[in-house]
Design brief:
Helix content is 0%, strand content 48%. With 124 residues, it is mainly β. Strand 7 and strand 8 form a beta hairpin. The radius of gyration is 13 Å and the shape is globular.
């Protein structure tokens, strides 16, 4: 599955931003999809995930993951953004091995396909 993120940009602290991830196949063809981010100088970290059979999973309650109306995308709505949310945000798909079947949605190892990322900068 090919993934392309969009919606990143510059926003002030306290503001909101919605990211989108367009998939080359219908999102239901995957086992789960997720959002991760890589802050400057840090490792990639879990943000949120969605499983079509088990629901949604969040690393932060300010963020909401959802499936797009076109069935080929997922979105990440981010509210009350903080400067520490500055990062490159990546979309990922568990598309081949159902690696998330045991609930390991927050591990990068559970995902087979990744987008190129979209930059989010939150100014103070």
């Amino acid at each position: 599955v090919q993934l392309v993120e969009s919606g990143g940009g510059l926003v002030r602290a306290g503001g909101s931003l919605t990211l989108s991830c367009a998939a080359s196949e219908q999102t239901y063809s995957t086992y789960a999809m997720g959002w991760f981010r890589r802050p400057p100088g840090k490792a990639r970290e879990f943000v949120s995930a969605i499983s079509w059979s088990r629901g949604t999973f969040y690393g932060d309650s300010r963020f909401t993951i959802s499936r797009g109306h076109d069935k080929n995308s997922i979105n990440l709505e981010m509210n009350n953004l903080k400067p520490e949310d500055t990062a490159v945000y990546y979309c990922a798909a568990d598309s081949r091995y159902w690696s998330t079947r045991n609930g390991e949605y927050s591990s990068t190892e559970s995902y087979d396909d990744w987008g190129q990322g979209t930059q989010v900068i939150v100014s103070s």
